[in-house]
């Protein structure tokens, strides 16, 4: 692909081109490999605990486990690795411990799949991960194409690609791919291009460099193109430069413009339906194609924080969610999905009273009920409103814990594997409880002062 081809594409005013426009020449491939690796050695972030210089004497299990990158936050990662330094440690762990350490990160099914994958590796492969992407993806539960490529290239040095959101953005701009990045056909093209440019030497560093570039330079908005090590062959940037040069020489002046007829033959990119006549239309940020997201659906839920006041310390009821579906296997306060939105407090109270009796066998005798308001949590596809009620009742009745229902202390509750949304609920409750205790203390202090004053005899 030459500068003439890029200029002709821009002259069409609708960026018309053929499939060949996205191809990678030998020169472009070699330049990219050299320039990107050189940049990475100078600019890579070293504050990530999973990105330590490779020590070939390290236990293979530990090194492979590190490649999972199980946490996006360093604090979580360190706690995880402290608990499970090897695959064998993870495989022998209890799923409750796994969920507790993962709680708050989201995508909770990944924790279970990691655990299941570790067990499979120990049982079938004697604790050693397969050393190639194909076998990793086929044999290990929870290991998809991306994870398989990361492990195989970073740990074992296999020349295999890695494609994530950052890499897609880099490649979409580098090859000017104007297509829905979620479509299977487009995704396959990104994998194909990524596979064609990964070098035989240092493939792990190259793949990490691609992700690093997307995270720090080729960012969604306001990319730092001046500092980009691969800008020389970036189609998106080349198009913008060509447009500015043509505009400078009056090409887009309708009186002077020559007729340019270039058909759009690309079977990957969406065809642009109107002329592009402004700088912004040729901005690098037009790639990847922005696809309108489907708005999350609204759901509402009545959450009951049931506090059983006993002769000892208060106990709180929690139940385990089903092993499949949203927030699978995590603990929560009794939660009733509401069939209609915008319900009132009295209606919810009636529903939760029936729910607690039918689901948990709880008879609320002279309870104190407090409407704590609500918290909102956004999942990837759901906007969930949790209406929170605090219910207190006295009972020394013995309840048997089961695998899915428990009565726990507040301290135990703090250490339970509960999702982020329910942690918000817990914070709201603790704040309200603190205020209630403070008011009660003030009231008792005032009463004590009044009684003391009544019985105090002033000295004459």
TrEMBL record:
CDD domains according to UniProt: ENDO3c (cd00056), NUDIX_DNA_Glycosylase_C-MutY (cd03431)
Catalytic activity: Hydrolyzes free adenine bases from 7,8-dihydro-8-oxoguanine:adenine mismatched double-stranded DNA, leaving an apurinic site
Domain HhH-GPD: from-to ranges: 63-216
Cofactor needs: [4Fe-4S] cluster
Keyword DNA damage included in the entry's annotation: yes
SMART domains reported in the protein's UniProt record: ENDO3c, FES
GO biological process: base-excision repair, AP site formation; mismatch repair
Keywords: 4Fe-4S, DNA damage, DNA repair, Glycosidase, Hydrolase, Iron, Iron-sulfur, Metal-binding
GO MF annotation list: 4 iron, 4 sulfur cluster binding; 8-oxo-7,8-dihydroguanine DNA N-glycosylase activity; adenine/guanine mispair binding; metal ion binding; oxidized purine DNA binding; purine-specific mismatch base pair DNA N-glycosylase activity
EC number(s) given by UniProt: 3.2.2.31
Cellular component terms (Gene Ontology): nucleus
InterPro entries hit by this protein: DNA_glycosylase (IPR011257), Endonuclease3_FeS-loop_motif (IPR003651), HhH-GPD_domain (IPR003265), HhH_base_excis_C (IPR023170), HhH_motif (IPR000445), MIG/MutY (IPR044298), MutY_C (IPR029119), NUDIX_hydrolase-like_dom_sf (IPR015797)
Cofactor binding note of this UniProt entry: Binds 1 [4Fe-4S] cluster.
Top-level EC class as recorded in UniProt: hydrolase
Coiled-coil zones: none
Annotated family: Belongs to the Nth/MutY family.
Role played: Adenine glycosylase active on G-A mispairs.
Protein name per UniProt: Adenine DNA glycosylase
Source lineage: Eukaryota, Fungi, Fungi incertae sedis, Mucoromycota, Mucoromycotina
């Amino acid at each position: 692909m030459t500068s003439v081809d890029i200029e002709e594409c821009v002259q069409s005013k609708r960026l018309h081109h053929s499939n060949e426009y996205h191809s990678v020449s030998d020169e472009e491939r070699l330049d990219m490999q050299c320039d990107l690796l050189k940049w990475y050695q100078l600019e890579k972030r070293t504050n990530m605990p999973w990105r330590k210089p490779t020590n070939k004497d390290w236990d293979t299990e530990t090194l492979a486990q590190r490649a999972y990158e199980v946490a996006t936050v360093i604090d979580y990662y360190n706690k995880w690795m402290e608990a499970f330094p090897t695959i064998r440690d993870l495989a022998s762990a209890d799923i409750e411990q796994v969920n507790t350490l993962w709680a708050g990160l989201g995508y909770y099914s990944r924790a279970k799949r990691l655990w299941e994958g570790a067990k499979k590796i120990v049982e079938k492969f004697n604790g050693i991960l397969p050393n190639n992407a194909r076998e990793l993806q086929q044999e290990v539960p929870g290991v998809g194409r991306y994870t398989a490529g990361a492990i195989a290239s970073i740990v074992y040095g296999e020349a295999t690609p890695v494609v994530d959101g950052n890499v897609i953005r880099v490649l979409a701009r580098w090859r000017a791919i104007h297509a829905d990045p979620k479509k299977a056909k487009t995704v396959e093209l990104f994998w194909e291009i990524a596979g064609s440019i990964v070098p035989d030497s240092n493939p792990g560093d190259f793949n990490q460099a691609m992700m690093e570039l997307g995270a720090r330079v080729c960012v969604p908005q306001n990319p730092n193109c001046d500092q980009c090590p691969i800008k020389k062959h970036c189609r998106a940037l080349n198009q913008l430069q060509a447009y500015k040069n043509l505009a400078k020489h009056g090409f887009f002046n309708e009186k002077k413009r020559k007729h340019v007829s270039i058909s759009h033959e690309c079977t990957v990119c969406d065809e642009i339906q109107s002329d592009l006549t402004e700088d912004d239309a040729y901005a690098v940020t037009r790639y990847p194609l922005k696809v309108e997201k489907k708005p999350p659906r609204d759901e509402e839920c009545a959450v009951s924080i049931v506090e059983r006041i006993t002769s000892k310390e208060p106990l709180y009821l929690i139940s385990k969610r089903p092993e499949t579906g949203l927030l699978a296997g995590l603990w929560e306060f009794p939660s009733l999905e509401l069939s209609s939105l915008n319900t009132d407090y009295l209606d919810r109270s009636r529903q939760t009273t029936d729910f607690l009796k039918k689901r948990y066998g709880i008879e609320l005798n002279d309870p104190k009920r407090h409407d704590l308001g609500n918290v909102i949590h956004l999942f990837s596809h759901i906007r969930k409103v949790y209406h929170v009620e605090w219910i207190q009742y006295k009972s020394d009745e013995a309840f048997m814990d089961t695998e899915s229902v428990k009565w726990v202390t507040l301290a135990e509750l703090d250490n339970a594997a509960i999702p982020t949304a329910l942690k918000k609920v817990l914070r709201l409750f603790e704040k309200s409880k603190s205020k209630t205790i403070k008011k009660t203390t003030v009231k008792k202090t005032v009463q004590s002062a009044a009684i003391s004053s009544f019985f105090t005899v002033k000295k004459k």
